[in-house]
Design a protein that fits this description.
single chain; 6 helices; alpha/beta; 2 domains; 5-stranded mixed beta sheet; 185 residues
Length: 185
């Protein structure tokens, strides 16, 4: 009887050891998986941020002559221009039009929304935008900016020089970095 009890006790210890080791390995592998996933996501975000910063640097300081051909309204206030394409992501456009509407209510800036490859009337309804939208049929503004990613907000001075640019993108780092809602003067 003693031998049977020792065998049961010995088997229980083996089972407990195997269970403990398998639980430990599961926790370790889960941690490694989560760490790798977060690491690759952070690497991707950093690459996106680097590309946006490079694109930003290529645009700031450029003079947008093409805007005068599209927007006839003169302005003494700084201009905020939203350029977008009908091919931009719907979530991005929704956020962009929401932001444009908010900036339009603030009387510090003249807001110009310029679309390419889009149904302007449909966009006004879909994104509940009551302001004017200009159509850039030849993509002159995007061409002059080397087809930067859109939708993009451009802050222009009175000479139509680009002073700042920011994007409204899904999971956007721009918003987290405070660039979307704080427009520099």
């Amino acid at each position: 009887m003693k031998n049977k009890w020792n065998i049961v006790k010995s088997n229980s210890i083996k089972i407990a050891s195997v269970f403990f080791l398998s639980s430990l390995l599961t926790v370790v592998f889960y941690y490694l998986y989560v760490e790798k996933h977060n690491s690759s996501e952070n690497t991707y975000q950093k690459k996106v941020e680097e590309k946006l910063d490079k694109m930003r640097a290529s645009v700031i300081g450029k003079r947008l002559e093409a805007i005068n051909e599209i927007v006839s309204k003169s302005s003494i206030k700084p201009r905020v221009v939203l350029i977008y394409s009908g091919f931009d992501c719907s979530e991005c456009l929704k956020e962009s039009f929401r932001l444009a509407s908010g900036l339009k209510k603030d009387d510090k800036y003249d807001i110009f929304v310029i679309g390419t490859e889009s149904n302007i009337g449909s966009d006004k309804i879909r994104f509940d935008y009551d302001g004017e939208i200009w159509f850039d049929g030849k993509s002159d503004i995007r061409k002059s900016l080397n087809y930067i990613l859109s939708p993009a907000f451009l802050l222009l001075d009175s000479n139509n020089m680009v002073k700042s640019v920011f994007w409204t993108l899904p999971n956007n780092q721009e918003k987290k970095r405070g660039r979307v809602y704080k427009i520099p003067n």
